[in-house]
Recover the amino acids of this structure.
């Protein structure tokens, strides 16, 4: 049999089955414990083979078969293989990334129920009347005797809410013992139970009804739908009703969201509406919670899985529908470490392989998605503004060259805030920069506080009295004087903290709240802030991109966008697309019921084509012109890219490695190599970064070239002692 392990090795290993077993008795997709050199490793069986290139005398035997049934069914194993092939990543690491940490370490894949029973010593003690027992211990012991042969922890807790101390004391005496027994009821705290009673369905608009009908008509066949509609147009209700129809057919549902911590409203709506067990999967969960959710999905006790990027690999049986909410969001792309996959793209592949419908929802679809619509690969479903909604908000540019600004807020913006507050509206101020100020400057010698490990400036965080690097996480105390000349220092520029401070000075009587990763590092703080906005307790909200993701604030009548110019002159060809998406997403928060909202965008470049196109034609008009420019330049989605990234402790090591890799590249007339060059931020966390761009008009030539080239790259990486990563379809090529 052939086994892959969690290691950066692009090969499988041949092993003999344990004594008394045949190779085909161990199913593909099951875990085995195998010898690797002088150590043991947990691997996954990926193939049964009649012959091996290794001599019979050299073949080693599997030490232990961990699973009697495969962890992945055939369709999910197919997706994992496709992922490894497309992203040119070791299959063992791809499979490991699809498993909770506990399973990678050998935990049981079957949910285990913690059960308690009285031991023979306990039975004898009861018969002898031995020992004095506290009332709680006496009651627990009597309950376990009556519940013979055993009682689950859930049964004990239902009778005795505070029982653990008594159980611990009895266990220490040896009178009771704890067992772990298989049982789907032990799925754990991340398997949310079915709701007692279904909520009534709200009436659908004509467009919503047409969307639900189109998706439902597909049944068990593949189709990709792009559900495009502004905030409040009812995309989530379409998801829910399609999910209900899928569950009624006996199938399960997978819903992917960019960041689970940023969408508590969506999680709550799914929990309240769908009358089946549900599991939530995201990186903020503990290892035990992730294991419990994974088990619940695999066993079928969770018919719905709602999760972030890695949930695309959730082992749902009888999958019938996939939903990707905010499909344009860059969070769906793995960009740091491991296999750099796109969960959105893998969700489409999974839907194709399983012959089922997928819904990609967004107010601002990614250019790749729009391109697939143009080519007829996807089907468009539009949700216009509802009849009970206000008109689309008015967008206007505020020219910072013509208006004075007070700590980043122009006079027209301040006047507009005052006007909307007087009309009892809420105001949302967006600035995509957390902290107090992006720079600490000496007014005498010009010194700027640098990060010692990165080519970056330290950000001022006045609330914590710190300078922090937003790239490597380094932090140090905020100095009162210049570290070079001893003169006075001052913060330069604006972040969310400084904007908050300015607005509190200008509007001291108005309740204000800040929403960024510093004020809401965990879901608990986020939910509290969102509740304050929804209840009207907060009249002014200052925030970063967190306020654009999944939140619906019906009381907001004015949105202000600060520092819109950040994305206008970037070297990254995707920067304009991201800026347009951000502006449209945050603008969608403006508009109270039937009162038309207002959006003000501060800029020093009001004549810039991107901004003018957005104002004149909305996102669709901007995207049409931008896609034409991409087509002329043969940039994605009209061309294919891959990026070979490298890092080294020395300033020249990464560049030398990439230059050597380019020199060994096989001849490929349809592939072009650009570089190597230093990354836009060459030094990060003490390492030097560089990159080499691989470009081709077609996917096939690009991937064939990479297949032929990677063995050379691997050999060079060992001799040059560098770290490298291949990024297929990169989102960021700076």
């Amino acid at each position: 049999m052939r086994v892959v392990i969690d290691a950066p090795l692009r090969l499988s290993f041949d092993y003999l089955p344990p004594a008394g077993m045949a190779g085909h008795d161990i199913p593909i997709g099951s875990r085995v414990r195998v010898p690797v050199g002088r150590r043991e490793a947990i691997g996954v069986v990926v193939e049964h083979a009649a012959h091996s290139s290794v001599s019979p005398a050299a073949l080693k035997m599997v030490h232990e078969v961990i699973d009697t049934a495969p962890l992945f069914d055939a369709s999910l194993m197919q997706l994992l293989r496709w992922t490894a092939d497309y992203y040119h990543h070791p299959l063992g690491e791809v499979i490991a990334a699809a498993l909770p940490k506990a399973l990678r370490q050998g935990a049981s894949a079957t949910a285990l129920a913690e059960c308690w029973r009285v031991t023979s010593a306990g039975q004898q003690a009861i018969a002898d009347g031995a020992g004095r027992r506290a009332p709680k211990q006496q009651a627990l012991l009597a309950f376990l005797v009556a519940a013979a042969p055993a009682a689950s922890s859930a049964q004990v807790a239902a009778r005795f809410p505070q029982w653990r101390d008594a159980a611990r004391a009895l266990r220490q005496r040896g009178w009771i013992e704890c067992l772990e027994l298989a049982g789907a009821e032990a799925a754990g705290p991340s398997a949310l139970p079915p709701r007692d009673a279904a909520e009534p369905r709200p009436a659908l608009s004509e467009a919503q009804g047409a969307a639900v009908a189109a998706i439902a008509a597909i049944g068990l066949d593949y189709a990709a739908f792009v559900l495009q509609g502004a905030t409040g147009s009812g995309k989530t209700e379409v998801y829910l009703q399609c999910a209900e129809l899928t569950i009624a057919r006996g199938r399960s549902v997978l819903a992917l969201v960019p960041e689970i911590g940023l969408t508590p409203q969506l999680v709550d709506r799914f929990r309240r509406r769908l009358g089946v067990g549900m599991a939530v999967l995201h990186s903020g969960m503990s290892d035990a919670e992730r294991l419990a959710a994974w088990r619940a999905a695999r066993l079928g006790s969770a018919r719905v899985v709602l999760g972030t990027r890695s949930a695309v690999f959730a082992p749902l049986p009888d999958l019938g529908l996939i939903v990707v909410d905010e499909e344009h969001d860059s969070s769906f792309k793995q960009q740091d470490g491991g296999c750099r996959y796109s969960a959105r793209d893998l969700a489409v592949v999974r839907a194709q392989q399983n012959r089922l419908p997928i819904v990609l929802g967004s107010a601002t679809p990614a250019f790749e998605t729009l391109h697939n619509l143009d080519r007829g690969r996807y089907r468009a479903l539009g949700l216009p503004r509802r009849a009970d909604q206000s008109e689309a908000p008015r967008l206007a540019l505020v020219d910072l060259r013509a208006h004075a600004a007070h700590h980043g807020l122009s006079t027209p913006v301040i006047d507009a805030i005052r006007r909307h507050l007087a009309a009892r509206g809420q105001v949302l101020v967006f600035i995509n920069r957390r902290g107090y100020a992006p720079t600490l400057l000496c007014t005498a010698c010009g010194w700027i506080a640098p990060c010692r490990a990165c080519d970056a400036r330290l950000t001022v965080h006045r609330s914590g009295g710190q300078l922090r690097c937003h790239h490597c996480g380094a932090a140090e105390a905020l100095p009162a004087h210049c570290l070079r000349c001893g003169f006075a220092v001052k913060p330069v520029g604006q972040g969310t903290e400084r904007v908050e401070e300015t607005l509190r000075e200008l509007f001291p009587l108005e309740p204000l709240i800040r929403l960024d990763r510093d004020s809401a590092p965990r879901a608990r703080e986020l939910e509290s802030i969102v509740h304050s906005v929804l209840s009207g307790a907060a009249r002014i909200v200052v925030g970063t991109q967190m306020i654009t993701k999944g939140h619906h604030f019906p009381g907001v009548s004015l949105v202000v966008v600060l520092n819109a110019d950040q994305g206008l002159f970037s070297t990254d060809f995707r920067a304009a697309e991201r800026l347009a998406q951000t502006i449209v997403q945050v603008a969608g928060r403006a508009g109270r019921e039937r009162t038309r909202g207002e959006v003000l965008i501060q800029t020093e470049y009001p004549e810039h084509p991107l901004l003018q196109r957005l104002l004149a034609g909305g996102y669709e008009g901007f995207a049409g012109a931008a896609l034409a420019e991409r087509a002329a330049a043969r940039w994605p989605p009209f061309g294919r890219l891959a990026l070979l990234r490298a890092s080294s402790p020395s300033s020249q090591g990464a560049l030398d490695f990439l230059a050597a890799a380019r020199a060994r590249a096989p001849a490929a007339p349809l592939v072009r190599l650009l570089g190597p060059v230093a990354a836009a931020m060459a030094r990060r966390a003490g390492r030097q970064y560089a990159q080499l761009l691989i470009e081709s008009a077609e996917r096939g030539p690009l991937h064939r070239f990479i297949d032929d080239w990677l063995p050379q790259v691997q050999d060079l990486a060992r001799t040059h002692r560098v770290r490298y990563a291949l990024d297929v379809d990169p989102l960021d090529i700076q």
Observations:
- Residues 609-633 form the longest helix (25 residues).
- The chain has 20 helices and 34 strands.
